[in-house]
C-alpha cells in the first residue's frame, strides 16, 4: 500500500483536538499553581507574619513541583476519562466526543490504512462500507476457487471495532477518488456527518 498524505479533514480535526487538550493541560497546572500560591500567602499572612517572603516562595515552589508530578501523571488522564464519563449522560455529546478521541488516537497508528474505501453487498439491498487492508492473501491459502480474494476491514462507528472479511475481489465496488476523503468521517460518525468543512 502506498502511503499518502493526511487529508485536510483529518488534519483539521487533529489540530482542533490538539489545541483543546493542550489548553486543558496548560490550564490545570496554572490553576493549581495559583491556588497554592494564594494559600501559602494567606497562611503566612495569618499565622506567620514574620515569615520571610523567600521562604514562602520556596514552599510554593516545592508544593507546585510536587503537584506538577501528580498532575502530569494522574490528572491529565483523569480529565480525559472524566469528560468522557460525564459526556456519556449527554447523548450526542458523548457520541461526538468518543468519535473525536478515537479518530485522534487511531489515526496516528493507522496512517494510510483507510485510503482504499469500498462497499459491498451483504444481503439484497443492504451494503456495507469497509477498507481494503490486503490485496494479496495467497499466504493464508483461502483461494477456494478461481476468483481472487482480498481482505476488507469493516469498522463499526464510534469504537473502531469491526470485522475483517475475506471477499472476492469481483464483489467489491471501489469508491471514487473524489469521495474517498469523506468516507472515514461518514463511517465513523454513523452517517451523522458526511464531511467536515
What does this structure look like?
The chain has helices spanning 8-47, 53-87, 92-109, 177-180, 183-188; strands spanning 117-123, 126-134, 149-155, 162-168, 172-174. The relative contact order is 0.12. A 5-stranded antiparallel β-sheet has the order 4-3-2-1-5. The chain is built from 5 helices and 5 strands. The two termini are 28 Å apart. It has 2 domains: 8-107; 113-188. Helix content is 52%, strand content 17%. A hairpin with a 2-residue loop joins strand 1 (117-123) and strand 2 (126-134).
Attribute tags:
single chain, 197 residues, 2 domains, five-stranded antiparallel sheet, 5 helices
Number of structurally distinct domains: 2
Structural class based on helices, strands and sheet pairing? alpha+beta
Order of strands in the sheet with the most strands? Answer: 4-3-2-1-5
Instruction: Tell me roughly what share of residues is in helical segments.
Output: 40-55%
Rg from Cα: 25 Å
Kindly report the oligomeric state of this protein. single chain
H/E topology pattern: HHHEEEEEHH
Number of strands: 5
Described by strand count, sense and barrel closure, the largest sheet is: 5 strands, antiparallel
Rounded to the nearest angstrom, the distance between the terminal CA atoms is: 28 Å
Low-confidence stretches: none
DSSP strand content: 15-25%
Shape: rod-shaped
Give the helix tally. 5
Amino acid at each position: 500500500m502506498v502511503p499518502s498524505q493526511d487529508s485536510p479533514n483529518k488534519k483539521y480535526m487533529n489540530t482542533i483536538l490538539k489545541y483543546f487538550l493542550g489548553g486543558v493541560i496548560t490550564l490545570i497546572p496554572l490553576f493549581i499553581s495559583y491556588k497554592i500560591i494564594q494559600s501559602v500567602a494567606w497562611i503566612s499572612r495569618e499565622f506567620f507574619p514574620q515569615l520571610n517572603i523567600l521562604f514562602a516562595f520556596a514552599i510554593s515552589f516545592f508544593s507546585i513541583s510536587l503537584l506538577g508530578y501528580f498532575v502530569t501523571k494522574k490528572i491529565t488522564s483523569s480529565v480525559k476519562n472524566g469528560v468522557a464519563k460525564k459526556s456519556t449522560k449527554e447523548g450526542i455529546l458523548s457520541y461526538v466526543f468518543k468519535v473525536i478521541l478515537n479518530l485522534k488516537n487511531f489515526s496516528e497508528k493507522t496512517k494510510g490504512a483507510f485510503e482504499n474505501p469500498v462497499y459491498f453487498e451483504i444481503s439484497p439491498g443492504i451494503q456495507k462500507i469497509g477498507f481494503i487492508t490486503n490485496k494479496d492473501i495467497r499466504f493464508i491459502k483461502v483461494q477456494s476457487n478461481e476468483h481472487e480474494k482480498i481482505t476488507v476491514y469493516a469498522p463499526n462507528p464510534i469504537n473502531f471495532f469491526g470485522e475483517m472479511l475475506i471477499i472476492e475481489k469481483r464483489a467489491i465496488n471501489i469508491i471514487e477518488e473524489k469521495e474517498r476523503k469523506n468516507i472515514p468521517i461518514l463511517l465513523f460518525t454513523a452517517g451523522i456527518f458526511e464531511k467536515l468543512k
